[in-house]
Each structure stands twice: as structure tokens, then as C-alpha cells.
Amino acid sequence: MTQDIVEQLGHLALGSRFKRIGEQLQAQAQVLLDAEGLGLPASHFPLLAALDRLGPLSVGEIAEAVGVSQPGITRQLVRLEIEGLVKSQRLSGDRRRRPIMLTVAGSLLVTRARKSAWAKIETAVAGICEELDGPLLNQLAALEQQLKHSSLAARVASKTRDRRHARA
Amino acid sequence: MTQDIVEQLGHLALGSRFKRIGEQLQAQAQVLLDAEGLGLPASHFPLLAALDRLGPLSVGEIAEAVGVSQPGITRQLVRLEIEGLVKSQRLSGDRRRRPIMLTVAGSLLVTRARKSAWAKIETAVAGICEELDGPLLNQLAALEQQLKHSSLAARVASKTRDRRHARA
DNA sequence: ATATAATACATTACGTGTTATATAAATAGA
DNA sequence: TCTATTTATATAACACGTAATGTATTATAT
User: Fold this and answer.
1) Which residue is nearest to nucleotide C12 (CA to C1')?
2) Does the distance separating the beta carbons of B22 and A15 come in below 8 Å?
3) B121 has a chain A CB within 8 A of its CB
4) Which residues have a Cβ under 8 Å from the Cβ of A34 and sit 6 or more positions away?
5) Best of A16, A24, A115 to mutate (most B CBs within 10 Å, chain B)
6) Alpha-carbon dihedral sign for residues B52, B57, B59, B65
7) For A82 and C10, how far is CA from C1' in angstroms?
8) Helix ranges restricted to H, A36-149
């Protein structure tokens, strides 16, 4: 097996490595979201969570809250509006601003997600992180290894089995 | 200031957060690479480092070593070949494989990068990580804060000043 | 009042990742 | 040997981030 250069490069390629880990995590979270029938990319949920927690926000405020560029948010909003999960009215004082709010469907989706997939993802990821301790690079190595060894979905599944056994 | 939802979501949005941190790190590393006149995106350097360390590799081997999909590597190779940093010959036994190797220019670039920008990036990032300890999320929070507070470039600059002072 | 600057958002163009699939070469089985 | 499968790479289509720029709208200064 060829070696993992990005890992070997250590601090030098830390950016590549973070992106790589992030993509893995998101991809595995996506599996859980899809399984729950939440028909959205994982990347869009922070936006929904922001509106859910903070109430109506302008485009720029969302961008700041989510830590994504404003064009990125605008694009996410196009999709979320098409799916009827958010709406906007441009009628307040400053007509440049476009306040966004969750629709009823959007609120319901957030509630549903929170009870189902979000809880599972949260638990699975927390489970991975639980054991991590010490220097960052070691933690990342352990994290990657765990992700490779058993996916978030697998963790959720085995967790479910555990619970069944416990109940039995 | 609107709050940072991704941070607040904790383990739930860890994927988004890793990607975000990775992008920041890469963007800041890019500044240092550009300053050094290395005319390449930061993301391409792991590929060059792989060839430098491991010698000629096929496309698939590079993909494995770098941890990026094979189509991603093929695209990077197109650019690197155009810039004359790598070359390939398809003449060995198995004519499906396309062994890639550094050109002389490529080797020189790696050497130059290693002595200049890479060393700086390595030092700057290691400097950030030095202080990190404890649970992962705390470390990430500290990491993000540090990145926000002073960029890699700024760290390099102040390091250089330190050295000047030390010499004086 | 009116020209100028700043702000909020949309659009464009681009980089880079992914999956799915096409193609060519090697290998295996009949 | 001829067909089927596997393997290595290329290509296509798409997701999603960015920076740069356009376009209204609002604020400021003369």
C-alpha cells in the first residue's frame, strides 16, 4: 500500500488534511440524512439551523453566522426557496436587505431532522471524538483511522443494535 | 455580531467545520506560496511531494498516496504537465498504466519550495498547533481563533522580524 | 439638491472536490 | 482462440467553495 503523503507532510499539508477529513465527515453524515429521507445536502443544514435558532436573518447575517461566503449562501437559498423551506419578504425599511425566514415546512423539517438524523450524527461523531486526546496531529490521525475503520452510518447501526441488545 | 452556528452545533457540523478550517489554512498557505513565486495552487503540492518522496508513480498510486480521487489527480496532472513540472511515459510493460515522474524543472521547484515557502508554512502552522491541547473541539476553537487573529502570513512576517531583532 | 461613497445582494467565472461512466489494455476461462 | 472480466485512466456531470464585479438602495458631504 502506498503511503499517505498528506499525513506524512504533517503541519505542511494540514489544510489539505482538514478538507479531506471534512469531506469524509460530510459524506458519511449525508448517508444518515438520506436514510432519514431528509432530501437535502448536508451543507445546507447549518443555514436551516441558523434560522431556526436565531430567527429571521438577512442574507449577509446568515453568511456570517454560518461562516460561508455570501454568494454561497445566496445559492443555498435558491434551492431552499425552491423546496419551500424558507421564504423572504423585502418590505421592511431598508429595501436592500432581504430577510429570510423558515416556512412552516422548513420548521417542521428542522424539528424532524433534530429528532432523527441530527441526533444520530451528533452521537456518532461525539463517539469518535470521545477518545481523542493529546496533540492535534495525533488526534487527526486517530480520527481518520476511525472514520476509515467504521463509518458514521456503521456506528449508528451498531449503536442501534447495542440498544436492542440492552433492551432484550 | 451574529454568532457562529457551525461552532455552536458542535459535533453535528464537524464536517462543515473541518472543511472551513481546511480552506482557511490552504488560503493562507497560498499567500505564502504566491509570495515565494511558486505559481501553483496549494492543493497541487502534495502531488509533487509524493513524486519527490516516492519516485515515479502511476496515476492511481498518486491518488492513493495523496488521498484524492483519481479524476482529481488526472486534472491536477494536466496542469502540472502543461507547466512542465511532471512528465509521463507509457512505454513500460502494462500500457494501461501511465507512470508519472518529476521533470528537472519539477524537482527544482520542489527543492526551492522546500527551502522557502514550505519551511515557512510548516513553522507557522506548527506554531499555531504548539499550544493546542486537550479535547478536539476546544483545539479547533482555539485553532480557528488563532487563524482569525493572525494569518499564517502574518506569523511568518513577525517571525522574520523576530529573527532580525535577534540578529541585531 | 446633488454628486459620491457605502451597503446588501445577485451574478459571473473559476478552482477543486466528488460520482458515474466510457475506453483501452490486460487477464481469465471456455 | 474467443469471450468475459478486471484494471488503469480519461471524461462528463455535478456540488460547493471562493473572489471579483454588477446593480440597486441608502447614507453622506458639499
Assistant:
1) A71
2) yes
3) yes
4) none
5) A16
6) negative
7) 17
8) 45-54, 59-66, 70-82, 104-113, 119-130, 136-149
User: Which residues are paired to A86 by β-bridges?
Assistant: A102
Chain A contacts of B15, Cβ < 8 Å?
A: 22-29, 42
Please indicate whether, in this complex, the C-beta atoms of B129 and A11 are within 8 angstroms of each other. Answer: yes
- Cell representation of residue A118: 441530527
| pLDDT, tens only, B55-92 | 899 999 999 999 899 999 999 999 999 988 999 987 76
Closest CB to A18 among B22, B53, B133: B22
Q: How far apart are CA A107 and CA A68, in angstroms?
A: 22
The set of strand D positions with any atom below 7 Å of a protein CB reads: 7-13, 15-20, 24-27
Q: Do residues B77 and B87 touch, judged by C-beta distance below 8 A?
A: no
> Crossing angle, helix B45-54 and helix B59-66, to 10 degrees?
110
**Residue for grid cell 488563532:** B146
Residues with Cβ < 8 Å from A6, sequence gap 6 or more? A13, A16, A17, A20, B46, B66, B67
Per-residue pLDDT of chain B (168 residues; tens, 9 = 90+): 567 888 888 778 888 888 888 787 788 788 778 878 877 888 898 999 999 999 899 999 999 999 899 999 999 999 999 988 999 987 768 888 899 999 999 999 999 988 888 888 887 777 777 666 656 656 665 655 554 454 444 454 454 555 555 544
pTM exceeding 0.70: yes
Contact A126 B11 (CB under 8 A): yes
> CA–C1' distance A94–C1 (Å)?
22
Q: How far is B168 from chain A (nearest CA, A)?
A: 30
Biggest CA-to-CA distance, chain B: 62
Rounded distance between C-alpha atoms, residue A44 and residue A78, angstroms: 11
Show the cell assigned to B63. Answer: 491518488
